[in-house]
Design goal:
Blueprint (H helix, E strand, L loop, with lengths): L7 H11 L17 H22 L3 H5 L2 H10 L6 E4 L6 H9 L34 H15 L5 E6 L6 H13 L4 E6 L10 H11 L1 H16 L5 H17 L4 H5 L3 E7 L3 H12 L5 E6 L7 H5 L26 H15 L3 E5 L9 H6 L4 E3 L4 H13 L3 E7 H4 L3 H9 L6 E5 L16 H6 L5 E3 L4 H13 L5 E4 L23 E4 L5 E4 L3 H13 L6 E4 L2 E3 L3 H9 L4 E8 L4 H11 L7 E6 L9 H8 L3 H10 L2 H8 L3
Parallel strand pairs: 1-2, 2-3, 3-5, 4-5, 6-7, 6-8, 8-9, 9-11, 10-11, 13-14, 13-16, 16-17
Antiparallel strand pairs: 10-15, 12-14
Bound molecules: thiamine diphosphate, 1-deoxy-D-xylulose-5-phosphate (DXP) and magnesium ion.
The site of thiamine diphosphate has 22 residues, from loops.
């Protein structure tokens, strides 16, 4: 355990001196000759490496500290990449990356064009399945096992899934199917009792029983020893013995749920005792059919701040090793916090308000709300679909559910949005966080598709604020709106530091706001793109062009009156959004003009092109796709040939 109080130089010196084994590991093949004692030493070196590297880069420290021995044992016993290692979510794949030749790239972790924070096929042949969203590993394992058997191959298929991810509906669908097909595959359940926040749900309590059911473990071991003493037996006696063991197991409950799903259940074992892990994985390797290995781990193992608070250290920004103090940017509050505070203000006056989160109470800014209103914050686990339909029913019964969800994770609940919420026109409020680029989590987490997948659904209103004060106004608007579903989306960035109205007033639905007058074209900007538009306008002003800027704060419904007026003025128009161009807000403007029979009105959409944008900073991601003031200014100038000639006299 890396103890607090030692200086950074101690840690760095020890780290360099003590990586004697790690320096020799350039691939899994270098593990095969190690003794168990060396594996133990190597696990310590890997832990120290993670603590050191992530103190500079940040990242998912606690999840990875919890799977050091497990990952080592997998690569020691099995043969990746022939054997398929499938990591659920993939945020706990740093050790896998260290062992598969990428330890020297960890200074670039989650940086632009650097090492991805999730499994990434383009990085290594050992990365056979990508994720970022949870609960997909068992379905992937089933597919790979099916393909293997159809192709007549014989490789292993091994999924590593956490206790949190196991609460995802997809995982249960896959368990059900795997148990039916009875293919040879291994599921390793990494049970650390934590999702990001403490895990929730009946499954979590069930796993807790198994964890604590020590006497089951003892009884099972004693029984096994007894059975082993009986000379090689066949026939009836063997069947009786097996039945007795199963009934004992049933009596003592452990693992029976998985066995009912058709798995052989093995465990639980201490996931930090490499000998236990090696033994149980060897056992599992000889099981015919699907096997579930239950491994008990500690999230943050080996670094006391992370062990003490694995919720905070699930995903961490750079920190000081010796103190565990994170390096935090000082500045205006992030939109998430403004949302959380405003929700409390609203809930104090309206007891219909119920917050619903699919396993993200911290990330969604609901911790203070939960503290103040413990019965009005519902964490459903990693279950976005369930959260959506449950919110619909809450609204059906006259409550005011606030479905707080990251844009990217709302993708999981698309049918619930359409089929249960919008079609029934229910008063559900969507608080869509992480709208736009998200930075280091990269393409699996950007919130760039919610405008396209929401705006064409009837009955929904969609808003995005220009600043944190307007976010508060939008939340007020949403709570007072009783004509169906309404969404407010906001980014993973800090606000502008504007003054906050004490009593924010609701907005007129569908009305945009001109924030800058001008006659040389107009920029319709959504959310934080207003800052980009203002910078572009300043660039154009130096060339004698005054551009109008409109805060297009309602993505749906459009401000049709303003669109018609802008067309009538013949103003060249740029629509600026940090979201997919295809089907986005800009598309809806084009559709509007077409459907109104207004042809030839020049509209240029500037958004996220039809590509996946990888990890980096939000600034780098915007630069990559051209969401910059320079690009906007250039595009507007090319759209204004006549005007340019008049103003500058140049052709
Ligand atoms: C569909 C989806 N919803 C939410 C998340 C956010 N998320 C990332 S990791 C995580 C918790 C995973 O818990 P567990 O599987 O137990 O892994 P651990 O971090 O404990 O190792 C959550 C909720 C996600 N990645 N995907
Ligand atoms: C792996 C995962 O999906 C979460 O840990 C996610 O990285 C959280 O994102 P934020 O850091 O934006 O809360
Ligand atoms: Mg967990």
């Amino acid at each position: 355990m890396l103890h607090l109080g030692r200086t950074r130089t101690d840690a760095v010196r020890e780290s360099e001196e003590s990586n004697v084994l790690l320096d020799q590991i350039n691939g899994p093949q270098d593990l095969k000759a190690l003794t168990t004692a060396q594996l133990v030493q190597l696990s310590g070196e890997i832990r120290q490496f993670l603590i050191e590297k992530l103190s500079v880069t940040g990242g998912h420290l606690a999840p990875n500290l919890g799977v050091v021995e497990l990952t080592l044992a997998m690569h020691y016993l099995f043969d990746s990449p022939d054997d398929k290692f499938i990591y659920d979510v993939g945020h706990q794949s740093y050790v896998h990356k260290i062992l598969t030749g990428r330890k020297d790239r960890f200074d670039t972790l989650r940086k632009y064009k650097g090492l991805c924070g999730f499994v990434k096929r383009s990085e290594s042949e050992h990365d056979v399945w990508e994720a970022g969203h949870s609960s997909t590993s068992l379905s992937a394992a089933m597919g790979m096992a099916l393909a293997r058997d159809l192709k007549g191959d014989s490789n292993r298929v091994i999924a590593v899934i956490g206790d949190g991810a196991l609460t995802g509906g997809m995982a249960l669908e896959a368990l059900n199917h795997i148990g039916h097909e009875k293919k040879n595959l291994m599921v390793i359940l990494n049970d650390n009792e934590m999702s990001i926040a403490p895990n929730v749900g009946a499954l979590h309590h069930y796993l807790g029983k198994i964890r604590t059911d020590r006497h089951y473990q003892k009884a099972k071991d004693d029984l096994q020893q007894l059975l082993n003493k009986i000379p090689a037996i066949g026939g009836k006696l063997a069947k009786t013995a097996e039945r007795f063991k199963d009934s004992l197991k049933y009596l003592l409950v452990s693992g029976i749920l998985f066995e009912q799903f058709g798995f052989t259940y093995l465990g639980p074992v201490d996931g930090h005792d490499i000998e236990q892990v090696l033994d149980i994985l060897k056992q599992a390797d000889h099981v015919t059919g699907p096997v579930l290995v239950h491994v008990l781990t500690v999230k943050g193992k080996g670094y006391s701040p992370a062990e003490a608070d694995s919720f905070k250290w699930h995903g961490i920004t750079p920190y000081k090793i010796e103190s565990g103090q994170v390096v935090k940017a000082v500045g205006p509050p992030v939109y998430t916090d403004v949302f959380g505070d405003m929700l409390i203000e609203l809930a104090e006056k309206d007891d219909r308000i119920i917050a619903v989160t699919p396993a993200m109470p911290g990330g969604s800014g609901l911790l203070k709300f939960a503290y103040k209103f413990p019965n009005r914050m519902i964490d459903v686990g990693i279950a976005e679909q369930h959260a959506g339909t449950m919110s619909a029913a809450l609204a059906m019964e006259g409550l005011k559910p606030v479905f707080a969800v990251y844009s990217t994770f709302l993708q999981r609940a698309y049918d619930q949005v359409v089929h249960d919420i919008c079609r029934q026109n229910l008063n559900v409020i969507f608080a869509i966080d992480r709208a736009g680029f998200v930075g280091p989590d990269g393409e699996t987490h950007h919130g760039v598709y919610d405008i396209p997948f929401l705006r064409h659904v009837p009955n929904i209103v969609i808003m995005m604020p220009k600043d944190e004060n307007e976010l508060r106004r939008m939340m007020k608007t949403a709570v007072e709106y009783n004509d169906g579903p309404i969404a407010v989306r906001y980014p993973r960035i800090a606000g502008l530091g504007v003054e906050l109205d004490k009593d924010p007033q609701p907005l007129p639905i569908g009305k945009w706001e001109t924030v800058r007058e001008g006659d040389s074209g107009v920029i319709l900007a959504v959310g934080p793109m207003l800052q980009v538009a203002e910078e572009a306008a300043e660039l154009l002003k130096r060339e004698g062009l005054n551009v109008q800027i409109v805060n297009a704060r309602f993505i749906k419904p459009l401000d049709e009156q303003m669109l018609l007026a802008l067309a009538a003025e013949g103003k060249r128009m740029i629509v600026l959004e940090e979201g997919a161009e295809l089907g986005g807000f800009g598309s809806s403007v084009l559709e509007f003009y077409s459907l109104k029979g207004i042809y030839g009105h020049p509209v240029r959409i500037i958004g996220v092109p039809d590509i996946f944008v990888e990890h980096g900073t939000i600034k780098e991601q915007r630069q990559e796709v051209g969401l910059t003031a320079e690009r906007v200014a250039t595009e507007l100038k090319t759209m204004l040939p006549r005007l340019m000639k008049r103003v500058t006299g140049q052709p």
